[in-house]
Amino acid sequence: MPSYLVETYLRSLTFALLAVASVLAPAACTSSSGEPPERTTRAEATPTTINQTISTTLPSATVHEFVSDRYGFRITLPAGWTATDAVVDWTGAQLEGLASPGWARFTDPVTNRTLIVAAARVAKGTQLGAWQAAMVRAAPAACSDSSSAQESTLGGEPALAWTADCSDGDAEKLAAVHGGLGYMMLFSSVTASDDAEDRRRVFESIRPSFRFTR
What we know:
alpha+beta, Protein Transport Mog1p, Chain A, 8-stranded antiparallel sheet, 32% helix
């Protein structure tokens, strides 16, 4: 075959191969849906990333804070609890009923357990042990307080905690002294058959949130 025909044949073959390559190259870079694999991966990852961001930045709606103007404290309560501040000053002479207007009162509508807090003026130099003993004496006759108390804290102050068995429900009790006032906190159930372990767990989940505001 003459050399000029060989050259013509080779140029034609080269052009044909280039044309085939240009057609196959885009197909190799796309998926069956016609989208590049890399783009599809990013699109699929975006919703997950957004969901992760939302789940870690949304504020919690499980608690709310209450401030008692009368007794100078704030406390964080589980969602759904009702809260009422005291409307009269507590004398500290006796532990009155849960409905007494001298208590700042917080109630769980699901279990009907009630947390109450009050404070009364104490003599200068009153020690925590003496105040706790006075609160044991102030208990109603229907209640039998435990003979010993455990060390605890309330708003950063030393506190004493003990329990009481009452005919109309048992209770967790806590006493503290702060700023010339004797504080009393009581978490009561509505029945003597209440789950003591669960009641104590709820009480201890709330107590650390207590803070004095004056």
